[in-house]
Records
---
Amino acid sequence: MVAAVAMAMVWTAISLGRSPETTETASGQSGATAECSDPGGSVQGSQESGQTVVLIDRSASAQTSAVYAKAVDPMLRSAVMEGRTVWVAGFDASATVLEADRAVTAVVGNNNNRIHARAEALKCLRHWASAQTAAKAANSDVLGALAWASTTASGVSPKIILSSDGLSNTGCVDLNLLSRAESPATVAARCQATQELPELDGFSVLLVGLGLPAGQSSVVRDGDRQWLIEFWKGLLTAAGARSVEVATDQDKVSFQAERPPSTPTDVDVALPQIARTETGSTSTVSLNDRMLFLTGSSELGPTAEDALGQVLSDLREVDGTVAEVTGHTDSRGTPRSNELLSQARAQSVSAYLKDQGYPATRIRGAGETEPDPECLEKDAPKEELAARQACNRRVEVVITFGQPQGGR
């Protein structure tokens, strides 16, 4: 006689630190509802089926009407059908608690019991996922959540599904402190030195919603989103992940919804940029100030050489000359101080290019008088102002084409 099969759900509150010291079991809270309680039978899961951890970002920039939870629904269904043990966890930047629920999917028993148990598991997983919408702290500790997941999942081919906009603003991956010229491997080495890099050896990671902030809390252009995707893929690969994939987002608009009231306010994230615009026989390369200078300084910083190396590559590719170097600032500060700072920054960039054999015909400081059309600061919503100001702090290099060598 085939034994009846059942499923168990457990809710735990676990410290979000890299090495949790306390684990508290709670009942009647979060996922432990009447709908999702242990029916009392024996659990017969399978270690061979492996485990999946689903991480749902509930920080202010991601937290909205459960769109990040809905985005993982197909993955939940697949994990249940594979007979995997599935964890669902909501995370933000709380230093004290990460909420997690677990469903052990039945894989042994008669077919009717297995179908029923899997249906119940999926129902509970969906319930728990949709419940992860209340941020308990501002900002988003993505690496902390990944570190917890890496010490939680086990078995054959463990998987992590990260549903997040990826706009991390804590610790060694605070994107407000990074330069686009830094490689993911360089950032990974720094995170490892500070013991913040999770150990993802053997894990498959699926990224969902990268660069798609909820509630339009940050401005993310398509080019910036691609950089963000490549950054996280590179960083997690450097952390040892067996594979890192990005889910295809069919409808970006689905991530844009009104943020519920009383949500903790995240620090906005301004991504470092290199943008190129071609017009006729010229190309304008725009470099974010964070790639070139320290805050408030006109002296080239440690990542400037890598960033300007990309300008030199453009020049060599088209046998070009430098027609103009222009510095720009945001609207903070006095017009005179902004003009002087932008002029000094343009001169520093021009001096570097001249040393490499590409003197500029014209050098000027525009201050805040020529903002990027997509980053106008006047009348900007409060939550977007910091990102728009960062977008306007830039140096533009205008290249005039010579004879192209191999095409662009």
---
Amino acid sequence: MIINPLDDAPLTRFHKKLAVFSSGGPFLDGFILSIIGVAMVQISDQWHLSAAAQGLIAASTLIGILFGAYVGGRMTDRFGREVLFTIDLIAIIAFSVAQFFAPNVIWLIILRLLIGMAVGADYPIATSLLTEFTPRKYRGPFLGAFVAMWFVGAAVAYIVGQLLAQTGDVNAWRWMLASAAIPAIIIVLARIGTPESPRWLVSKGRHDEADEVMRKVYGPSVSVTDLPQEEDANVGVKDLLRSGYGTRMAFITLFWTFSIVPLFAVYAFAPKILGALNLSGDAVHVGSAVITILFLVGCVIALFLVNRVGRRPLLIHSFLWSGIALALLGFFPNASTWIIMALFAIYAVVIGGTQIMQWVYPNELFPTEIRGTAVGMASSLSRIGAAVGTFLVPMALDSLGIGMTMLIGAAITLLGAVLSHFMAPETRGMTLTESAALGTAPAPSRQAAPVAA
């Protein structure tokens, strides 16, 4: 294996700080999407909201993420990673504070739509920057940690929301929504001074600036001459889809969709689903909390496995065994409480592999010039399926029943396993140039170079 000063650099304090600051985006995503669930109780009472209005408020952030991820991806490839790395968080701070003064439901929906756009934009910006600086040995775990941070943000949101709700303040819901500005301020201050990606600078012909960054990060003996030559990928969206990268985009979008459609449905409607499975009272609330924790546990376990077992086996097995768990729930909806909770626990833990690969594969399979665009587009397209699936879950439970609903979720998940078997490449141990180059990425059957854990 060829040693490269960038891809094989030792892990430094700079890399660790960048990983933490970059994961601020998914933390805020989990916080913002979860805090609205706690705040909605008080908002609905004060504004006498209909079910449709509540749905629009909850969905507005997801819709914003859909557009923001694509726009952010395009902008980060055009204008660079460094500037947008802080601008998007400043927007989150401003719109979060503005929610405190929202006079009616229309303004609240608009503000949450704008927040969603800023959150969505941060994903391709932050992941591109982290990918292009991180040594290959740590790239998979660092990118996978993005998903884990989403669940950390969600857990913090529930704690903050409950504490504020217990104050009895009529404006508690306003404080809840505005509270997202606090972690956003901390993150944006921490991000100040982050250098631009030397790979992106070189792609724009700014070699002197790239040299300066590389000497600062990797040492005085490293320069742009140490950057591997990437193939020319200066293409638009239509050209991207028509080129060989179109197949990769299709794979990423499909496996991402197959992964999050059942997961979003289970996560969003866990109490309702558990109730339909004959759980009641405290068992529903405890079960919902346990499932949330286990989603995080599953992501953490997957972080330790992504380099040990490889990307492709992790994705396939994650889809396979989580799909089987959902299928058993569908075939045996009247099983005992302990069996139901055990199957849900298996699903929540095992699906973690597909969750972390949502950020590993898109960043490894596309070159620098279109990496942000590709990540943003895949994130946006997958949200469409997730939104539709989440919207249909309550109707499916009412019209089809819990058993058939779980079987549909199982079918979608197992379809992801089949797709991954035929299309998932193995990129473990590769440099970014190797994994992103058309014609050189390994076929599914090829073994990747071993990497130490």
---
Amino acid sequence: MNKLIQFPYSTILVLGLAKSGTAAAKTLLANGKRVRVSDMKAKEADDVVLELRELGAEVIIGTHPLDALDGIDLIVKNPGIPYDNPIISEALKREIPIITEIEIAYYLSDGPIIGITGSNGKTTTTTLIAEMLRNSNQPVTVAGNIGVVATDTAQHVTKDESLVLELSSFQLQGTIDFKPNTAVLLNIFEAHLDYHQSLENYVKAKCNIFKNQTNDDYLVYNAEDKTLIQEIKHAKATLVPFSNKRKVLDGAYVEKGYIYFKEEEIVAIEDIVLVGEHNIENILAAVATAKLNGASNEGIRRVLKTFTGVKHRLQYVDSVRGRLFYNDSKATNILATQKALSSFQKPVILLAGGLDRGNEFTELSPYLGSVKAMILFGETKYKLKELAENEGIKNIVLVDNVEKAAQEAYSLSQEGDVILLSPACASWDQYRTFEERGDMFIQAVHRLV
């Protein structure tokens, strides 16, 4: 098991438990650090509270008192806790460094680190990279924002094993020394401004992925993203671009129906199963990263000829009597639904709706040309109905939930149609998570078979 050999802190406050905080606290304790934990939601009788106390941690529950900072030389913060939280504001005044647990994972990892971030496409690209390496007989472990705590995983990574990390802006803002051997920057769109307070802060957090890199490291970046073009001027890493618009000789690109890496033909576009123009960008980033880390062309081709997508992200579900069902429940905003709609040339029956955040959805209008019907649900169904009427869509059905939407869509469909769940809204008006919403859609589709 890997140890925190050069970790320069001794007395640490873990702020917020959940999975990442619990893993961080246990790891720090196992490495001889003095640990204080503060969590708002934990209860005295919770197993994790009892276990951490038994391991030697001081545990404060139900509050984040400012005196919890006394004697502390580092804070490990749950990524979801904003920086305007009173205890974080006080810590900043006291100049106490604040990290998230991926910084600990960096100190623990004994092998090369591949870090992937961006506003969209992180999970798909992370999964593609890992599968390309595995199919090339390269040892690899995946963790981070993808749902696996990086600290837990990094303890067991060997020097010959790549640690592939999906990284959010929340995680990256809490880094000091973190440095991936290969950093991947997919794109930057305006997002999470309620947390970061400004676009400038959001961009800075994302770009922390390469701030400590040297020219021995690689930075794979989207050569068509204007924001990234400006930001990478500060990078010291070896730059490796990707582009779906033009030929970039020192990176990955599309030419005459093929994907290339540094003028080497990799795979024909027509052989790729994963749909969507935006996924071509994700594939280019993955190909470049995989090649830089030892993947074979055959391993890459094997993945791209079989990979149908990450669950809930424009995921192909099934074909029922010639109707193609796609689950894009992760499309919790208008931009994601725009990308989904632009992925299909066939007639589309769109299933949409959810939590009302005040959007009017007019930005979807240019993307509705192939939509023959809309099945609408959730708080926003009347707003979306008005949009559909304004666009001249004749078949508009309002239903109670996703299950009924799948049934109605099938009844209206014909052979060759795409039935697409891409809600353009968060799920919280009816479902706990977008995963729950997507799972219910998948179950409804399978009942049609």
